[in-house]
Amino acid sequence: CKDSSGRGNHGTNCGATFDARQGATFDGIDDYIEVPHSKSLDFGIKDFSIAVRLHTTAELDDTLGDILSKYDPAIRTGTTLSIMNYPGVASAQPNFRNLFFGIDAARIDYEWFDCGRPGDALSILALAVHDGKLYAGTFEAGHDKVGHVYRYEGGTKWVDCACPNVCNMIPALAVYDGKLYAGGTRRNIVHDGMSILPNQNPGGKVYRYEGGTQWTDCGRLGDETEIEGMVVYNGKLFAGTLPLARVYRYDGGTTWNYTGNLDLTPGAKYRRVWPLAVYNGKLFAGTLPSGHVFSLEAGKCATYDRALAPGWRHVAALRAGGLLKLYVDGKCVARSSAFNGRDYDLSNPQPLKIGLGQHDYFNGKMKDLRIYNRALGEAEVRALSKRR
């Protein structure tokens, strides 16, 4: 694989197939391109830009994976550009075709931020990102209590989306064909140390969210009464636990490092962290039995919290001063929170990998990949997006 920039950053092709018009095709199984480390690929504390034209299919039988990475997991330092497509984490689909651009230099928040309790939730059973917002499915107890779907509006504010569910849980959320779907369940969670619940209305129905407080009843799944985590965030694997509701970060081998205890409800027999989702550049986690949602930031990240449309798309990722920016088809769609550039020295000896990172192999096509040692201007990004 030849570098046309004149800097000699030629790569070794590990399985990708090439076509003059379609570019490089990656099978999502074991195809990638590796470029050795060099001085010109040492991003350090400098601005840089990544631009690429991508093709993904609408019907998927695999995750979409990583577009590019220059990251050293041993020292948690480098950069990653990927598409998060996480089906069936816990009982929900937290991220569907969401672009992710992150940098890290072994930095992490000192503590998790409490994002509040949606309604009267005893447990957060599902988290999902849809159309630029984070949604939560809850378990609530009591004769007149039902599982709800809530939309996060920042801080500790949650808005009830008025799902017409009548049973005590919404443990399943998923995005399909551009719409958010919610599945209801009746359950007596005696194994979590709770008594038999008074709401015995059956579950087994699925609802489609139409926006605002509008839902469409999509029917029941036969005679069923139930519709029943771990997630990769900024190059590292995070896992929630039972019975102490702790979250750990995997750092290789048999090493799991503790990041926080999210539920300290006194007297509870079991406490757990179940659903995990990446939203607005942060990792979110839902708990039982406190029913709170927490967030954590590791490094700096920008996420496009809407589904990346299938077909050919132009994507650009920029480090510009103290911000990360994401562009899709020439338009800025996401920014990170501000940071001090000197705090994020991305220097590491690892090779640049195209089509592979800490998540998975890329599943799709790429062409016209460009890396700049400066932040592109908006007009330059727009011009690149129009090239064919």
Detail the topology: elements first, then pairings:
Layout lengths: L11 E3 L2 E3 L3 E5 L4 E4 L12 E9 L8 E8 L4 E10 L8 E14 L4 E2 L8 E8 L2 E7 L9 E4 L5 E3 L8 E8 L2 E7 L19 E7 L2 E7 L9 E4 L2 E5 L5 E5 L5 E6 L10 E8 L2 E7 L4 E4 L1 E7 L6 E10 L2 E6 L2 E5 L16 E3 L8 E10 L5 H9 L2
Category by helix and strand content: mainly beta
What is the percent of helical residues? under 10%
Distance from first to last alpha carbon:
20 Å
Largest sheet: 7 strands, antiparallel
Count of DSSP strands: 30
Number of helices: 1
Low-confidence stretches: none
Strand order of the largest sheet: 1-4-29-6-7-8-25
Q: What form results from the Cα inertia axes? A: globular
* Mean pLDDT across all amino acids: 88
User: Which range does the strand content fall in?
Assistant: over 45%
Radius of gyration: 22 Å
Describe this structure as you would to a colleague:
With 388 residues, this protein is mainly β. It has one helix and 30 strands. The strands form six sheets. A seven-stranded antiparallel sheet has the order 1-4-29-6-7-8-25, with no helix packed on it. It has a seven-stranded antiparallel sheet with strand order 2-3-30-5-26-27-28, with helices on one face. A hairpin with a 5-residue loop joins β20 and β21. It is globular, with a radius of gyration of 22 Å. The two termini are 20 Å apart. The model has no long low-confidence stretch (mean pLDDT 88).
